[in-house]
Design goal:
The complex is a heterodimer. Chain A is mainly α. Chain A folds into two domains: 81 residues, Rna Polymerase Sigma Factor, Chain: A; 87 residues, Winged helix-like DNA-binding domain superfamily/Winged helix DNA-binding domain (Arc Repressor Mutant, subunit A). Chain A is built from ten helices and no strands. In chain A, α2 runs antiparallel to α3. Chain B is mostly helical. Chain B has one domain: Arc Repressor Mutant, subunit A, CATH 1.10.10. In chain B, a hairpin with a 2-residue loop joins β1 and β2. In chain B, α1 crosses α2. Chain B is elongated. The chains are: A mainly alpha, B mainly alpha. Chains A and B meet through α2, α3, α5, α6 and α7 of A and α1, α3 and α4 of B.
Chain lengths: 196, 83
């Protein structure tokens, strides 16, 4: 998308949306549509459901953003991902990944051991190769549980801040950080499986 | 971990617990210095911490492209619904 407004922050654009500035809204759409689509695509059963969720997200943004009595939206990205997540869930989640090897919460030490903590073959050089191997990462991500995948996608793939990620998932910041760390360790473990 | 050991005032399992905050730059200066002192003296934590950091840096590469048609259909749908 070209034209005025590209340099403006989300917050400034939202102020303009409140004044029913459709161009400012279009800039927000162009800025966030790809990352939102990738996110809902990972949650929905079909591409059509993902597209419907994406449309609903931006319609909701416009309606909320132009409502005179609505509280201001603090973090645009956190809000958008939160709305998108709910829109995707209303359409039915994709079949959840098979439960991990055993049920229940594992300790960090257990997760670390599965990720290769304390084992000689785990080293930075090995993991640096994944910068050139998006396919292996995508396959490993697909093997994670939904709650693990979504926190990783928001924080590490799409680059949301900690506060935005917590807001999108409806978690406290501490709970989000704990889930993120565990999800990263699980991804390391899955990478050992899919790309040994 | 079998070889859990104390270096720089921290045990390996404490470094493991702090790894995300370390990589995300969210440790305070004193804790960060402790983690770095431990890692400087512990090969296991240096290797694993380095691998963890590399993996986090690599994950952003997993974002697939979004087809142009998705953006086109979104634009048309928003025009229809919002005018």
């Amino acid at each position: 998308m070209s034209g005025e407004g590209q340099e403006l922050t989300d917050e400034t654009l939202l102020e303009r949306v409140a004044a029913r500035d459709r161009h400012a809204f279009d800039v927000l759409v162009a800025r966030h549509q790809a990352s939102l689509f990738r996110f809902v695509r990972g949650l929905c059963r079909s591409e059509a459901d993902a597209e419907d969720s994406l449309q609903e997200t931006f319609v909701t943004l416009w309606r909320r953003g132009t409502r005179d009595d609505a509280a201001p939206i603090e973090h645009a990205r956190g809000y958008l991902f939160q709305v998108a997540r709910h829109a995707a869930f209303r359409r039915g989640r994709r079949r959840a990944a098979e439960p991990a090897t055993f049920e229940g919460e594992r300790t960090l030490a257990q997760l670390g051991a599965e990720a290769g903590w304390g084992q000689a073959e785990v080293n930075p050089e090995r993991y640096a190769q994944y910068r050139e191997s998006a396919d292996a990462l995508a396959r490993a991500l697909a093997r994670l549980r939904e709650d693990e995948r979504e926190v990783l996608v928001l924080r590490d793939v799409e680059g949301l801040s900690g506060d935005e990620t917590a807001e999108a998932l409806g978690l406290s910041r501490a709970a989000m950080k704990s889930r993120l760390h565990r999800a990263r360790l699980r991804l390391m473990a899955e990478l050992r499986e899919v790309a040994p | 971990m079998k070889n859990d050991r104390q270096e720089g005032g921290l045990w390996c399992h404490e470094v493991l617990a702090d790894l995300a905050d370390y990589v995300d730059g969210e440790l305070d200066d004193a804790r960060r210095a402790q983690v770095e002192a431990h890692v400087a003296a512990c090969d296991n934590c240096a290797r694993f911490g380095g691998a963890y950091g590399e993996m986090v840096a690599s994950v952003s590469r997993a974002a697939p492209d979004v087809p142009d048609q998705v953006a086109d259909r979104l634009r048309r749908a928003l025009d229809e619904q919002l005018g």
